[in-house]
Amino acid sequence: MNNFIRFLKSWRYWDACIEFLSNHNLGISLVQRYQLLKDLYKITFAFDDIPHYQRQILDFVVAILQAPRDIPGVIIEAGCFRGVSSAKFSLAARLAGKQLVVLDSFQGIPPNSEQHEIYGRVVSFAEGDYAGSRDEVARNISDYGDIASCRFVEGWFDDTLPHFNEPVAAVYLDVDLVSSTKTCLKYLWPLLNPGGVIFSQDGHLTRIQELFNDEQFWRDEVGCAPPRIDYLPKTHLLAVHKPA
Question: Which domain holds residue 126?
Answer without folding.
Answer: 52-241
